[in-house]
Amino acid sequence: MTGTPRTAERHRKTKETDITVRLNLDGEGKADVQTGIGFLDHMLEGFAKHALVDLHVRCKGDLHIDGHHTTEDVGIVMGLAAADAVGDMKGITRFGHAYIPMDETLTRAAMDFAMRPYLVWKVDFSRDKIGDMDTELFKEWFQAFATNGGMCLHVENLYGENNHHIAESCFKACARAFKMAVSLDPRQAGAVPSTKGSLGS
User: Fold this and answer.
1) Which of 54, 117, 147, 174 is a good FRET partner for 139, with 20 to 30 A between their CA atoms?
2) What InterPro entries does the record point to (predicted)?
3) Which 3 state secondary structure label does DSSP give 91?
4) Is the pLDDT higher at 112 or at 200?
5) Is the pTM of this model over 0.85?
6) Helix axes of 68-86 and 38-51: crossing angle, nearest 10 degrees
7) pLDDT tens digits, residue range 123-134?
């Protein structure tokens, strides 16, 4: 292990959004998030806390239209920052998983951080909105985060009734799986965790 700081900063500007993300994989769970969507801010603050990453997000998006571009593009930039921060992937645990209960709700997430992006999303909501956020946008964030981060990510809500609990447990489960996957395993001794000898392209 080199002791190199596992941090990244990404900026992405389009006609729809202007986003800056700073990420420290070896942080303390500190979050400074402003996306313009209150519930998304709440979810990302929880992600940082339970992944034990330091996360800074600033987004100016076309919320006069709706929250789609903001939600998806924040996922894109966070995924890109995560891939940058992991770097050559030497020494990481690679796989992570978590079960997160929240009262009547239980959600499972499993991750392979191997630059082979894929999302399995088995989550249903009984309401169209939670706070100021459309529930259909949660999948968009997870899809963008997994695809641009190079993660194979499976998220499944096993059961639950309260839509807030369902959404929050998805983010927390992803966070804990992410924390495990990017953690450094001293037994890897700086090696890439693959029989191929490399991960990604």
Assistant:
1) 54
2) IGPD_sf (IPR038494), ImidazoleglycerolP_deHydtase (IPR000807), ImidazoleglycerP_deHydtase_CS (IPR020565), Ribosomal_Su5_D2-typ_SF (IPR020568)
3) coil
4) 112
5) yes
6) 20
7) 999 999 999 999
On whether residue 200 sits in a domain, the answer given is no
Quick: pLDDT tens for 42-65.
999 999 999 999 999 999 999 999
The alpha carbons of the chain give a radius of gyration, in whole angstroms, of 16
d(CA 177, CA 51) in angstroms, rounded, equals 8
DSSP annotation of 96 reads E
Count of the separate structural domains present in the chain: 1
For residue 189, the SS3 value is: coil
- Give dist(CA 198, CA 195) in Å, integer: 8
DSSP 14-79: -SSEEEEEEEETTS-S-EEEE-S-HHHHHHHHHHHHHHT-EEEEEEEE-TTT-SHHHHHHHHHHHH
Task: Decide if 64 is inside a domain.
Answer: yes
